[in-house]
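Moderator note: this is an archived Q&A kept for reference. The question asked for a predicted structure of one protein chain; the sequence and the answer are reproduced below.
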Amino acid sequence: MQLINHPQDLGVLGPPPIGLVPTMGALHRGHFSLFARARRECATVVASIYVNPLQFGPQEDFNRYPRQLLEDVGLCQEAGVDLVFAPQQLGEGLQTLVVPPPTLTQGLCGRSRPGHFAGVATVVSQLLNLVRPQRAYFGQKDAQQLIVLQKMVRDLYLPVGVIPCPTRREVDGLALSSRNRYLTAHERTQAPQIYEALQLALTKFLAGETDPVMLQDLVLNHLKPLSVEYVELVHATTLQPVTAVHDPTLLAVAVRLGTTRLIDNIRLTCQKAPIIAIDGPAGSGKSTVARQVAQQLHFTHLDTGAMYRAVTWAALQKQLPLTSTVLTTLAQQLDLNLVTSSTTQVWVDGTEVTEAIRTPLVSSHVSTVAAVAGVRQVLVHKQQQLGRAGGVVMEGRDIGTQVFPQAELKIFLTASPEERARRRQQELAQQGTPVELADLYQQIQARDRQDSTRTVAPLIQAPDALVIDTGGLTIEQVTQRICAWASYL
C-alpha cells in the first residue's frame, strides 16, 4: 500500500476503475464498509484522509477533531486499500470556492452551519480532480452532503459516479460517526433515542400517516429529553419541505448531546427490497441476464423493452402511422400487462404477444417508437408503478438514468457490435428465422446510433453503473457477478 502526502506525487494510481473513499480520518466500521464496497467494485481503491478546515465554522470542533493518521493508515492497509492520499494542505488559503445551490444548502444542517457545504464541495471537487476516480463512495448518514455532491458532479459534468452507501449502526441503532467518541457514558445511553424516533415515524408512515406535522411531532415527543436542533421532512432529492409525505421522503434530525452534535436520517418509503437496473445496447444480453438474476435472487423480472415492443407491435398490427401523436394515444389506450413467473408473458388487449413482439419487423421499428416522448412518459410511469416496492430486476436502455435513477444497483452490459450480431443470429436461427450476419451487424450499428443520439432519454451509461463487457463471458458468469454484488445490498 502506498501513502502519498503531496498532490504532485499523485501519478498513475492503478488500473481502472478507481474507487475513492474520502474521509477525515478517525476511521470506524462505517468507513470500512465503504472500503469493502469499493474493493468489490473497483480494481484500485484510494482512501483520502484530510480534516478539511473549510467545512468547520469558527465555533466548531476543528481543533479537537480526532487525528490519528498512523493508526488510520494501518487500518486502511488491513481493509485492502491500495493507496492513502493524506495531504497536509488542500483547502487552506483557497480563494476559489465551489458554492452549491442555496436550495440544497439553506435548510437542515446548512441553517446552523453557513459555508459548510461550500467547504465540502470545494475540497471534494479537488480530490476528484486529483485522484480522478470513476466511483466515489459516501455514506447516507450525511444525506444532505450526499445530495449536494451528486448535484455538483452532474452540474460540473465530472466523470465520476457518486455512490450512496447505507448508514452503518451500532447494535442499539446509533449511527456510526467519528464524533461518537466525544459522548460521555451517560450521553451514549441517550443517543439511541435518535434512531428509535426515526423508526417510530417510519412505522407510522407505513401504517398510512402522511401528515408531516404529525410525524414531526411524533419524533419531537420521543426526543424531548434531548436538545433538538431540527426535525424536518423534505423531498428526498430536492431537500425542499413537503406538505404531504410521499414515497420517498427524507426524515432528517440533528440533536446535541452535551457538546456533541449528532445527525441521522431515514427515508420514508414503501420499498421493501433493492431495485436492480440493467441497461445496455441491443444484443448485450440484458433480457437473458435479467431473467436469471431475478430467478436467483427471487426477485420479479420486469422486461421494460418488451413494453416498447408491445406498443410497436400493436401499431404495426393496426397499420397506424408511426407519428408522435398517434403512438402516444395508442400507448395511453393500450391494455398492456406483464405476467411474470419463471418467464415474462406479454399481453396486449387480452392477447398474448410474447413471441410476436420479437420478430425482425418489430425490432426494426421499436427504436422509432421508443424515441417518442409521449410513449416514454406513459411507459416510464407504468414501470415506476410496477417497481416501486422494490425486489425487482428491470432491464432496458434508461432504467438507471431515467426510470429508477435511485436504484441500489445499476449495471451496464456491453459487447462489441460483432458479438451482438452473432448472438442475435443464433437466437433467430433457433426460432427458425435465418438472417445474414452482415445484415444483423448493420441493423445493430444503426440501432446503436439511433438509441444513443435520440433527444429523449438516449442510451447513456449511468455514471454510477458497474460495467460488464459480456464478450467472452457466459450468461452464468455475468449472472453470478451481478448476484454477488447484489448480495451485499
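Archived answer notes: The two ends are 27 Å apart (CA to CA).
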